[in-house]
Design a protein that fits this description.
The chain is α/β, with parallel strands linked by helices. It has one domain: P-loop containing nucleotide triphosphate hydrolases (Rossmann fold). Helix content is 40%, strand content 22%. It has 11 helices and 10 strands. Bound molecules: adenosine-5'-triphosphate (ATP). InterPro entries: AAA+_ATPase, ABC_AA/LPS_Transport, ABC_transporter-like_ATP-bd, BCA_ABC_TP_C, P-loop_NTPase.
């Protein structure tokens, strides 16, 4: 290995030092890839419904600390892919490695225990429970490996204290004692993220967290994702391109079940196939 390359290897281990002015060539990203072990590695994942290949031979990696966004037109297979990653839906073929372990056959609860959490669009919320009780219940479930839905947790400071911290983190300070069904749509989306955070995930799977939110709510949730970014690895499905390109470290593009491109936002914007298949459509919408 030449001297400049050796310097790059050292610099690559230092998150602040990885600029490597000596060798601004393609060797450097490859070195970085070799050094940074992916937290999630998806290999040739597929799922069909009859003749329809909904996820078709999909492969990609997500590195620890990365925010990887998955975009694609309606019906491209994004939700199906998230279902497969979370364990809600089995794979016809392919492999999912999480933190170096093959989780392809693991149940959803086992994946959650391993640190792979998904925010479950509103349906995971207990509507009559307050925001605080919802998060405290999720913490209780993590600690006891089961949901005790009817066992209210109101007086348990051991649960309430971390629950309050999580609610404040997602921007729901001042809303702790509001019943979940009285929260606004955007606040419910924030609560979903809080419930997922209560499982202490290493990887957070988010399915359209901005869907149906107002302009202000969307800004709040975008700020929340920006604050979580780097601390927790995130796989984000989102139709809001402004948010995706502002937040993502890398973007994967699904079209008809195939990941046609994955790369840095600027590369994805410039990719002719992506523009034709997807982003071009947007500009004409
Ligand atoms: N259970 C199912 N049985 C049959 N077809 C299905 C099933 N689930 C999804 N599909 C089909 O698979 C395709 C991909 O659906 P999916 O919901 O994963 O797409 P998506 O990219 O998330 O779309 P959107 O952006 O509209 O949410 C669609 O054509 C859908 O009709």
């Amino acid at each position: 290995m030449d001297r400049a390359l050796a310097d790059c290897v050292r610099a690559a281990a230092d998150p602040d030092g990885f600029l490597c002015p000596q060798r601004p060539d393609r060797t450097v990203p490859r070195l970085r890839e070799a050094l940074v072990k992916p937290l999630l590695s998806v290999q040739q994942l597929s799922k069909s419904y009859g003749a329809l290949k909904v996820t078709n031979d999909i492969s990609f990696d997500i590195a620890e600390g990365e925010l990887f966004a998955i975009i694609g037109p309606n019906g491209a297979g994004k939700t199906t892919l998230i279902h497969q990653l979370s364990g809600m839906l089995s794979a016809d073929s392919g492999q999912i490695l999480f933190n170096g372990v093959d989780v392809t056959q693991q149940s959803m609860p086992d994946r959650v225990k391993a640190g792979l959490a998904r925010s479950f669009q509103i349906t995971s919320i207990l509507p009559r429970f307050t925001a605080l009780e919802n998060v405290a219940t999720a913490i209780q479930a993590r600690r006891h490996s089961s949901f005790r839905f009817f066992d209210r947790v109101a007086n348990d400071e051991g649960l309430n204290e971390p629950a309050r911290a999580i609610l404040n983190e997602v921007g729901l300070d001042g809303r702790h004692h509001v019943p979940a069904d009285s929260l606004s749509h955007g606040e419910k989306r924030q609560l979903e993220v809080a419930i997922a955070l209560a499982t202490q995930p290493k990887l957070l799977l988010l399915d359209e967290p901005l869907a149906g939110t107002s302009h202000d709510e969307s800004r709040n949730i975008t700020n929340l994702l920006r604050a979580l970014k780097g601390r927790i690895t995130i796989a984000l499905i989102e139709h809001d391109m402004e948010a995706v390109f502002a937040l993502a470290d890398r973007v994967g593009v699904l079209v008809y079940g195939r990941m046609i491109a994955a790369g840095a936002p600027a590369d994805i914007r410039a990719n002719a196939e992506v523009r034709a298949a997807y982003l071009g459509e947007e500009t004409h919408a």
